[in-house]
Design a protein that fits this description.
Elements lengths: L8 E3 L5 H9 L9 H4 L1 E5 L2 E7 L5 E8 L13 H7 L10 H10 L3 E6 L4 E8 L3 H13 L5 H18 L3 H13 L11 H10 L2 H11 L6 E6 L3 H11 L22 E6 L6 E8 L9 H12 L5 H9 L5 E7 L7 E8 L4 H18 L3 H18 L3 H13 L5 H12 L2 H11 L6 E6 L18
Parallel strand pairs: 3-7, 8-12
Antiparallel strand pairs: 1-5, 2-3, 4-6, 4-7, 5-6, 9-11, 9-12, 10-11
Helix pairs in contact: 1-15, 3-9, 5-10, 6-8, 11-14, 11-17, 12-13
């Protein structure tokens, strides 16, 4: 749920993070073989490596994570992790960035790095014969980046521009402010302000980047998943060879949990000349994905706010015509406790009606729960989309990595459909009432709107953030 500007550090292509998350949530084994039975998992020089051969021909997908995300940045240098990760593709001490790009491009391979709240993410794709080269370049960029002063200064200008551009986006501003409204200082999911990011970035030096890399990059806490037309034993041997002698890295301490608010609060962010008002309504849940109640709450949330069949879209959009887009989701709960939120956009003139309609749906869902018909439909939808998600080696690799990062065993990938099928209506309705309280949820509005919710005149001064 990273709200910071993200540079998708990549050779040849970019990888949208939210697509990966969707594949994770909607994937399923179907008729394929057992992941737990067929995958080979071992500790390779401190790296947790999982390799799985699938029926795909010639292609191999590699995904990985390293605990060097934004939550490792110090309070006074909140962009340090992002800056460090974004320097990985600027060349190494062995060769420049153009030579690396040429090697990858000449064989149609891709390799990318990106930083999110908790991790540095690694994604690669190549032909079977080129896996040794891909793993070797991955290790080289992780272990001995050049950290060129000239490249670093160009990167800072790029990121500063991205931060400034984000401030004009109503969706971003609403989600960004929501994170600070519900998460305490020190929680990984609490995002820094734009002022903090810009000020810190301007002062960050390349020496500090090198120090961050030395302290947090290493095999400890690193995971690597290799899926496709691959010999698992040979793949692990390539990882062992490429990363031989690498040391360091660390796991972060346990994060401070976010308590649900004792009373409702509203925050309004005035932005002039916007055609829509972005809204976030929700609360901290104190739940991680791995907690027992999480799956039932996810299923209930899907019924309430996922897609055109969800109650929010069916009523607030289709029936009443008050918005083009609205939905509900759980967020930020892979490594820490997360939150539950509704996100929507309304025309300024329809904001009050839209919020009233949204709250009516929320109150009814919370008080009355879901129906047996809704539960059966949601389970059927999950079963189908789940199967499609794991039909590709990329989807399989992403799902395995996500489940491991959520502290779930490999068996969970196989068991997920069965666990979903076993959830009862009473369970779903129980966890909705247990973990959510519409009366104390936080509301954030961002756009051309006054503090009372009515459209604001252009001359109205910005509301306090």
């Amino acid at each position: 749920m990273n709200e910071r500007p993200t540079v998708r550090v990549a050779q040849m292509r970019f990888f949208p993070a939210f697509i990966a998350c969707a594949a994770v949530l909607l994937a399923s084994p179907g008729a394929r073989a057992s992941v737990a039975k067929d995958a080979v998992r071992s500790d390779v020089g401190g790296i947790d490596v999982v390799a799985l051969r699938t029926s795909v021909q010639d292609v191999v997908n590699v995904v990985g994570s390293l605990r060097a995300g934004d939550d490792r940045s110090p309070t006074g240098d909140v962009m340090l992790a992002t800056l460090t990760g974004a320097m990985l593709d600027k060349g190494t001490t062995a060769q420049d960035k153009f030579a690396i790009a040429q090697k990858l491009g000449s064989v149609g391979a891709t390799l990318s790095f990106s930083v999110d709240t908790n991790t540095l993410e690694i994604r690669g794709k190549c032909l079977r014969k080129d896996l040794p080269m891909l793993v070797g370049l991955m290790a080289e960029q992780l272990r001995i980046p050049a950290f060129s002063e000239q490249e670093f200064e160009k990167l800072k200008v790029q990121l500063q521009g991205a931060v400034q551009q984000q401030q004009q986006d109503t969706d971003f501003r609403a989600g960004d402010a929501f994170s600070r409204a519900i998460y305490p200082v020190g929680h990984p999911n609490r995002q820094p302000t734009a002022e903090q990011m810009l000020a810190n970035m301007g002062n960050t030096t390349i020496a500090e980047v090198r120090q961050f890399h030395e302290k947090y990059y290493g095999p400890t806490g690193m995971r690597l998943v290799i899926v496709g037309d691959v010999d698992p034993v040979a793949a692990q041997a390539e990882v062992r060879k490429a990363f031989s002698g690498w040391t360091g890295g660390s796991l972060p301490p346990a994060a401070t949990s976010a308590d649900a608010a004792a009373e409702a609060r509203t925050e309004t962010i005035f932005m002039a000349d916007k055609t829509s008002v972005s809204v976030v309504l929700g609360q901290a849940t104190r739940l991680r994905f791995s907690d027992p109640d999480s799956l039932a709450l996810r299923l209930g949330t899907r019924i309430f706010g996922s897609g055109f069949a969800g109650r929010l879209m069916a009523n607030v959009r289709d029936k009443e015509g008050l918005t083009y887009g609205i939905g509900a989701s759980l967020s930020g709960d892979s490594f820490t406790d997360g939150d539950w939120r509704i996100r929507a956009a309304f025309a300024p003139a329809l904001l009050d009606k839209g919020l009233a309609s949204t709250r009516r749906q929320l109150d009814a869902w919370h008080a009355e729960g879901i129906t047996d018909a809704e539960l059966a439909r949601a389970k059927s939808e999950l079963s189908g989309t789940y199967q499609v998600g794991l039909a590709t080696s990329a989807g399989m690799a992403g799902t395995i990595l996500a489940m491991l990062n959520r502290d779930m065993p490999l068996e969970f990938v196989d068991e997920y459909p069965t666990r979903v099928k076993a959830i009862t209506r009473d369970e779903v309705n129980g966890v909705i009432r247990k973990h959510l309280d519409p009366a104390t949820m936080t509301l954030v509005k961002a756009g051309t709107v006054g503090t009372a919710g009515a459209p604001a005149a252009k001359s109205t001064p910005p509301a306090s953030e």
